[in-house]
Amino acid sequence: MTKESIESLVEGGKASAAPPLGPALGPLKVNIGQVVAEINKKTDAFKGMKVPVKVIVDTETKTFEIEVGTPPVSQLIKKELGLKKGSGIPNKDFLANIGIEQLIKVAKMKMDSLFVNNMTSAVKTVAGSCDAMGILVEGMKAADFCKEVSKGKFKKEIESDNSELTDERKKKLEEQLQQVRKQFAGELDKIATAMKAKADKDAKKEAKGVKAVESAKK
Hints:
- By secondary structure, the protein is an alpha+beta fold.
- The protein folds into 2 domains: about 5-70, CATH 3.30.1550.10; about 75-190, Orthogonal Bundle (Arc Repressor Mutant, subunit A).
- The protein is about 50% helix and about 15% strand.
- The chain contains 8 helices and 5 strands; from the N terminus they run E-H-H-E-E-H-E-H-H-E-H-H-H.
- It has helices at about 20-25, 30-45, 75-80, 100-110, 120-125, 140-150, 155-160, 165-215; strands at about 5-10, 50-60, 65-70, 95-100, 135.
- The strands form 2 sheets. A 3-stranded antiparallel beta sheet has the order 1-2-3.
- It is flat and about 70 Å long.
């Protein structure tokens, strides 16, 4: 039995016979349409994200297996929160507030690749990815959240293995987010003012330079 593997990065649920996947599979004489359909079926839950896949083909029987990796933790968090990108000022401009239930959901999806042996550690690992994106965790910065977890807070929630948010919890998380945003509103206004002043200064400098060049040409 001889097997060959093809690895590719595809958008969840949207693999196609186009390059790079199709041309790579062609020489193996496997049914590309069936392979693409199976990949899309297995990656449908990851729509909007790039997913690593491996196609293992038996070159004699032309049968195949599909192995699907999971996107990075940061992508899963953004998908869970409906974010396209992280914050430009992650330590002050907070875009979202993720709940323990959502952390558990992401942790379950990444458990096999996190190199941890329990859900508590997995949740803390996932939370650790939030700071760099400007995402609060239960109304706190990730480091503070992890300290609370180490003290035993959220133990009941983690042991319950619940990964679904109720409307009441969504409301509470939003209230926490707005409260923290108010605390940093003044600092963000100062940053915005400073950035505008710099942009205006740079624009004037550029305009002066253009004028000097035009004068020199004359």
